[in-house]
Amino acid sequence: DYVDAARAMGASDARIIARHIFPNSVAVIVVYATMNIGSAILTEAALSFLGMGVQAPNPSWGIMIQDGATTQPWLMIMPGLAILTTVLAFTLLGDGLRDALDVKMKDA
């Protein structure tokens, strides 16, 4: 509706994008990005654990868990906790940003 109103007032396409569309979409993009960082970390760790991701000389939490699983099982705890903490932190950050940047929640 606000785009139609701006267009009816004679605003150019660049002005509509800069003043209306971009400010209303940047919050969604930031929240979506922070929520997807956790799944990217989990995907990388799972692929490295299976041997299809980062190879052995490079550090990876998946490789650390794989090494712990084959040698001493208690060595899997710290990389697993690091993955858990990092993914949880990014998920909570995305949730907090969604609450802080949501325009509809501020009106209520």
Q: What does this entry look like structurally?
A:
It is elongated, with a radius of gyration of 21 Å. The chain contains five helices and no strands. Helices cover 79% and strands 0% of the residues. The chain has helices spanning 2-8, 13-50, 61-70, 77-101, 103-107. With 108 residues, the protein is an all-alpha fold. The mean pLDDT is 85. Helix 1 (2-8) runs antiparallel to helix 2 and helix 2 (13-50) runs parallel beside helix 3.
**Major sheet characteristics:** none
Distance between the termini: 20 Å
Q: Which range best describes the helical content: under 10%, 10-25%, 25-40%, 40-55%, 55-70% or over 70%?
A: over 70%
- Backbone CA Rg: 21 Å
Rough outline: elongated
- Series of secondary-structure elements, N-terminal to C-terminal: HHHHH
Uncertain runs are none
Count the helices. How many? 5
- What's the overall average pLDDT, rounded? 85
Strand % is: under 5%
Helix-and-strand structural type? mainly alpha
Work out the number of β strands.
0
